[in-house]
Structure formats: C-alpha cells, structure tokens
Amino acid sequence: FAQYVREQGYHIIPISAQGQLEYGCNFLNLGNSNIITVHRETARQLARNLHLPLAHIELIEYRSITSMYGSVHCSSQVIRRVAPAPQGSTSQPCLHQLANAPRGTIGPAPAPTGPLSGRVSLVVTRTGSAAQRTNKCIMVAPTSFYHDRSSEMCNFFNQHPTITDRPASRRHLQQQFLLEFSELHSKVVADVGMDVLLFHHEDYEACPNAIFVSNIFTAHHPAELHRPSSEAAMVLYPMRNPDRRNEFRSDALHQLRLRYPDVTDLRNLVDRGLALEGAGSIVLDRARRIAYVAVSARADEAAAKLWAQATGYTLVTFTATDDSRPILHSNTLLCIGDGFAMYCPSLIHPAHRERVSMSLASSGLEIIEVTAAQQRSLATNAVNVSSASGESVLVMSTAAHDSLDEAQRTRLLAHVHRIVHSSIPTIEAVGGGGIAALMGLLF
Predict the structure, then answer these.
(1) What are the residues facing 368 on neighbouring strands?
(2) Number of other residues whose CB lies within 10 A of the CB of residue 300
(3) Distance in angstroms (rounded) separating the CA atoms of residues 138 and 201
(4) pLDDT in tens, 412-430
(5) What angle do CA 131, 135, 138 make, to 5 degrees?
(6) Please, what's the b/e burial string for 176-206 (b: 16 or more CB within 10 A of its CB; e: otherwise)?
(7) Which of 14, 183, 201, 213 is the most exposed place for a label (fewest CB within 10 A)?
(8) C-alpha closest to that of 134 among 364, 390, 311
(9) By three-state DSSP, how is residue 17 classified?
(10) Model's pTM, two decimal places?
(11) Radius of gyration over alpha carbons of the chain, in Å?
(12) Backbone phi, then psi, for 422, in 5-degree steps?
C-alpha cells in the first residue's frame, strides 16, 4: 500500500501508533500548506517536513471533541476540491484543498450565519460596552444532565412532582433537555451571533448540574480588576454540592487558562465550610466594579469578602427570601445590563432593600422592578450580551419573557436592541436554573 501511495506522487510522513490513537492522522488540509491539527507531535513533524515549505500549521485544543471518538477531519465536510496535480508535477497534491483558498485564510472566521456556524475560540474581541457586555461564552450540553436530588433539598426552583428515577423517565427527560438546549444554542449562535465554546460531560463524571456552567467560574478583563498584571483573569469558585466540584475538568480548565492565565482559585474554601457559586452568587456591575451578593447557603458572606479582597470590587451583600425560603442565587432576583438593572426588591429583606436600591440608582442604572411572581418565572435570570455586530441583546427564557408586561419590555428595549428568548421549561423545572446559569460569559 505504501508503495502504491508513493507511486501516486505522495510523500509519506510516518507517525507512531500512539500518535495515530491520539488523532495525529485526523488533521485538516485547507490547501496551500494551511493545516489544522489536534496533535502536538504531528504538528512538529509537519513543520519539519521539507515537502511542506512555508506551511502554516495551526495546533488547536480539541480534547472535548476527540473524547467522542472523532477529530477535526470528522467534524468538517469538503464542499469543493481542487484536483491533484498531474504525476511528476513539482507541486504536492492536497486531497482536501479548498478551491482558490488564498494563503493566510486560517484566522478569524466570519460572523456566524447559521445554527452550526459558532466558532470554538478563546480569542475574545469585546464589542459594545467597555465592560458589561461580551459576545463570547462557554456552554455545556446536557449530555449527563439529570434530576439531582441533592440540589432539590435547597433549591425551590426545582419543580418536578411527577419525575421519577425510572430509566424510561430519565431517557425522556434527557431528550427534552437536549432539544431545549439545542434550540437555545442555535439562537445564541445564529440569532445573536455569539461565539460559543461548547463542552459536554459523560454520566461517569457524575456532573448532573454541569449545564449551569456560570456557577463555577467568572472571567475578567485585565483592566477590570485593576491589578499590576496585564493578563486576563478568572476566578474559580467553591461549590456547596460535592457533585458540582467534579465539574472542574482538566481539559476545560486548560482551555480557560490559555486565555485567562491570572487565576484566583477559591475552591479550597470548601475545606472551611464556605461556598460561593460564581455568577450565580455574584451579580457584577463591571463598569462600576460593584458586586451584589445574596447571602445564603450557597453564598457565604465570609467567602464573598475574600473574593472582594482578591478582585478589588465593592461588595453589596443582602439577604432575600420567598415565603421564608432563602433565595440561593443572586442572579435569580437581579440582572444588571448596559444601563439598566432588572430586579425584585420585594424579596429583599426590608433592612437591606433601600441599600441595594440606592446602590443601583447611584450607579446611573435605570431600575426595572419585577414582581415576586415574575421572579419565580426567572425573569431576572437573563444576560445582556453583544451580537456579532456589537448590538446590545438581552437573552432570556421564554417563560421569563412571557412573564413581563408590555411596559417592562418597552423599558428594556430602551437599553437593548432586541430581546431573544428560548423555551427551556424542562431545564428550568428540573434543574432549577435559567439562562444566566447556562451561559458562562468570557470577557
């Protein structure tokens, strides 16, 4: 076979058996020596090969995809090909060369134009407001999402009287989770134009709530934290539920550290019995560097103070309850966007209510109040993001959107170009979280 291949004018670059198992052969040749590979040693061999003069070789992190038994070649499809050069020609044939592809076309992709056109990229180009909005996020597909009884005990957003642990019931729920998530992902990528870094989990990893990715980390632009370092930063958080601590996967953290080398790791606070659950516990006014935290079993005030010391944010803490049940996550009653704050003051303790309202108002934000009934529909669990063209977009669930009245929507539309909503009733009822929990924003 090797002799036949050589007779056809090809040069063979041998790789090891281990390299083959690690998808060294499964690379993408875009023509004109532009190559994308997922295997470091293969990238080195290609770069050293004299038959690939001036090769542009892109090594990308792809382990979340190769874990599903495929790589870049499998996850792409050729639309047009250039015929191989005649035998004896000095130019090397490219089996997967795109027609008329000029040198240097490997780089930033064009804006998304369809439901599958989101780019997996950690090069963040921030648009819109200098601080509050971004057009990139992480999402985790609900491939191992199921009813978590340990979370049910303290999260009254879980509403599932008919849910059982029978396999058939679980399979049905899994299908619903995937359908709802797929629609949301499609709208975030295609309708909004965001870049989404997509991960998934397997059942054996025991991460039933991994879909709520914004709870485990926050990302910060260098100027936001006023640190001597010019590096982008991220914070990793201590999770109350032990199962949620499994969500800090090494491959995901590796990708995040490539973009956010300045890491504040608070996870060891669990050894002191403390919890603070990321963007769920902390609602950030990034432009004014103010953080709002509803103190609860998932947001200890001591942990919040340590976080504020590390980040330089001004901390506004309060308590909130609904029918004497504590509000566990701040982002279920407060959403801060570009120029507005949508929140539910009636659930905040009377002793703290004026302080929170005054802080929001003095920041120049228009306060759009929602009722307790609207809060229970997760009306405030929304995110203000940027479209690919820089427009301000509010993303929320359909239940949240439908709970708002016309006057509230009109006031919101004075600050955002449009509202995009997606129906996720099963995820909200079973998981107890909404849109803001599903999108881990990258700044």
Answers:
(1) 342
(2) 21
(3) 14
(4) 999 999 999 999 999 999 8
(5) 105
(6) bbeebbeebbebbbbbbbbbbbebbbeeeeb
(7) 14
(8) 390
(9) helix
(10) 0.70
(11) 24
(12) -135, 145
